[in-house]
């Protein structure tokens, strides 16, 4: 690993090492730029995570201790807990009426170490949704402009799935899909008995055949424990090695960036200030360009904390929109049941397949016709079959051989699904700096003002009704149905708080993720989104990061940024 040179002015400083930062750094380095990546957390190698260590090797049998649970988010487990932030030392605050769950990774690779792998392109209509339903602002670029970068990213990442030719769900460059289970094939009958509804193979960032030097997935099903074969995509396993291969990439872990520094005599940034996570000393590094890919809310927090006489409410924030127009996905309509006809069939482990690969029900509301009760829409992530330790076993009485027999008989019968709906951006859904609370590094924390609006509430009602009618049409016995959505933030799909747009008066960034006001500042994570759509964001984050990196490299080739 190359050592940081404090005397050097790097061509680009990239803050964050996940999907956004990893893709940006790789692209910049491959295009000839000297890149410094700063990551707030430690550096672990892919094989440091004991990916295949069995649950019975842990004191709490696959769970973390109650004491540790108070420190970590809901996504943490014994295999990956070291990659998450200690929330007891790094708090955030919430306004009255806000119930927000903020999942934060602090490790090289970011949340790609344990993400759900669902990889969906946005559709042409998603980029012009405001003109179709009259809400919000337009994206400043089109699907056609981003499509080549989708293809480029997919060729690196490796996406498995099936070609469906659906206008609202454009096909990617697919590797072979993961087969559906018997229960999922039965679910199809219920879903597709309704006009306009489809159940398709999941689209997962997993290589099902050897690809780019990575072996095919071996179907262990433990992707969130950090894949040690790199078959499921992570920035640590795929992007960082490609960046390092160029010889023009320097990675500095344990670098908690405090502030983006504004040059004293120009409206440009000169670098960043960071705190060393091991010795707690503060350092400054210089760069011709600064790219933020620290995650939507961390990048927003960093900009809000980067104040000066010129920008008293956040760097580049003359428009006042920084921190506002938060959007994400609302999770609702959860339902589970059993398929009686599959009782007693030979057990097949449904969890022994990559995350993101079980079937998906694409959006079917407000696609060709507009409803009156809500705008935008939702899609369902589904799955049928049981895992290594089926939860239903707790409800089965008995013990010994008879108990095991009953568990095996029910193994293939279970089925469930949850909807992910678009949260529309609102100015009153926002984050701000809480100067009264500091994290362990003395940096002011975020305060959240986030609630579900009337549109989301109406959408959830339809999610519940739709999931129930599809289950009944498939002959599935409903066991449990959620009536309330998960709290804001639970989807881990935060977006919109540093949005791009054509008008500098109502947006922070232009179509290349470049600050309207500070020309050598770029923000390439989900905070740049103009709207969230109902689709998972990671593939689009990486496509935008690749596009921004190409733009920077070309501008630098033409002599721009060089003299700043």
Descriptive terms for the model:
564 residues, 10 helices, alpha/beta
Low-confidence stretches: none
Number of helices: 10
Main sheet?
Answer: 7 strands, mixed
The radius of gyration computed from the alpha-carbon positions, rounded to a whole number of angstroms, is 23 Å
Report the portion of residues in β strands.
15-25%
Mean pLDDT value: 96
Q: Fraction of residues in helices?
A: 10-25%
Looking at the structure, what is the overall shape? globular
The termini sit apart by 28 Å
Describe the fold and architecture.
The structure is a single chain. By secondary structure, the chain is of the alpha/beta class. Helix content is 21%, strand content 18%. It is built from 10 helices and 17 strands. Strands 1, 2, 6, 7, 8, 9 and 17 form a 7-stranded mixed sheet that branches. A 5-stranded antiparallel sheet has the order 11-12-13-10-16. Strands 3-15-14 form a 3-stranded mixed sheet, with helices on one face. Strand 8 (269-276) and strand 9 form a beta hairpin. Helix 1 (19-30) packs parallel to helix 6 (235-245) and helix 1 packs parallel to helix 10. It starts with 8 loop residues before the first strand and ends in a 7-residue tail after the last helix. 51% of the residues are buried. The mean pLDDT is 96.
């Amino acid at each position: 690993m190359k050592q940081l040179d404090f005397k050097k002015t790097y061509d680009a400083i990239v803050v964050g090492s996940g999907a956004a930062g990893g893709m940006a750094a790789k692209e910049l380095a491959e295009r000839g730029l000297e890149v410094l990546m700063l990551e707030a957390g430690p550096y672990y190698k892919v094989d440091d995570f004991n990916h295949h260590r069995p649950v019975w090797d842990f004191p709490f049998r696959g769970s973390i201790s109650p004491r540790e649970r108070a420190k970590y988010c809901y996504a943490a487990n014994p295999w990956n807990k070291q990659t998450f932030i200690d929330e007891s030392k790094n708090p955030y605050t919430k306004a009255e009426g806000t119930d927000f769950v903020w999942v934060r990774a602090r490790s090289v690779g970011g949340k790609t170490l344990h993400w759900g792998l669902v990889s969906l392109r946005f559709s042409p209509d998603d980029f012009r949704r405001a003109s179709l339903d009259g809400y919000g602002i337009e994206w400043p670029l089109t699907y056609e402009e981003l499509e080549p970068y989708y293809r480029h990213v997919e060729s690196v990442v490796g996406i498995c799935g099936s070609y469906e030719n659906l206008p609202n769900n454009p096909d990617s460059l697919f590797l072979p899909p993961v087969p559906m289970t018997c229960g999922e094939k039965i679910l199809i009958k219920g879903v597709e008995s309704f006009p306009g509804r489809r159940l398709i193979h999941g689209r997962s960032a997993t290589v099902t055949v050897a690809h780019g030097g990575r072996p095919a997935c071996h179907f262990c099903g433990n992707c969130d424990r950090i894949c040690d074969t790199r078959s499921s995509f992570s920035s640590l396993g795929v992007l960082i090695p490609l960046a390092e291969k160029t010889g023009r990439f320097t990675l500095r872990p344990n670098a908690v960036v405090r502030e983006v520094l504004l040059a004293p005599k120009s409206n440009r940034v000169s670098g960043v200030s960071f705190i060393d996570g091991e010795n707690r000393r503060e350092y400054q590094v210089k760069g011709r360009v600064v790219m933020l890919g620290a995650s939507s809310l961390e990048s927003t927090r960093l900009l809000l904390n980067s104040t000066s006489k010129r920008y008293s409410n956040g760097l580049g924030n003359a428009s006042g929109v920084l921190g506002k127009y938060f959007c994400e996905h609302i999770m609702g309509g959860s339902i589970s049941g059993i398929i009686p006809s599959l009782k007693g069939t030979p057990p097949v482990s449904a969890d022994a397949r990559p995350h993101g690969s079980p079937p998906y029900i694409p959006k079917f509301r407000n696609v060709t016709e507009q409803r009156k009760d809500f705008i935008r829409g939702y899609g369902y992530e589904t799955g049928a079959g049981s895992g290594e330790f089926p939860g239903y076993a707790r409800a089965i009485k008995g013990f010994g051989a008879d108990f095991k027999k009953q568990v095996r008989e029910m193994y293939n019968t279970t089925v469930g699904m949850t909807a992910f709906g678009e949260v529309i951006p609102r100015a009153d859904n926002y984050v701000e700096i809480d100067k009264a609370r500091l994290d362990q590094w003395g940096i002011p924390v975020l305060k959240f003002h986030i609630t579900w609006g009337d549109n989301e509430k109406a959408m959830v009602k339809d999610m519940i009704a739709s999931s129930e009618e599809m289950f009944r049409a498939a002959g599935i016995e409903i066991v449990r149905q959620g009536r309330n959505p998960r709290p804001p933030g639970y989807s881990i799909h935060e977006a919109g708080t540093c949005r791009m747009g054509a008008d500098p008066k109502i947006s922070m960034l232009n179509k290349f993720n470049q600050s309207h006001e500070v020309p050598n500042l770029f923000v390439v994570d989900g905070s740049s989104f103009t709207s969230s759509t109902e689709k998972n964001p990671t593939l689009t984050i990486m496509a935008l990061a690749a596009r921004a990196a190409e733009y920077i490299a070309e501008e630098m080739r033409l002599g721009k940024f060089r003299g700043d």
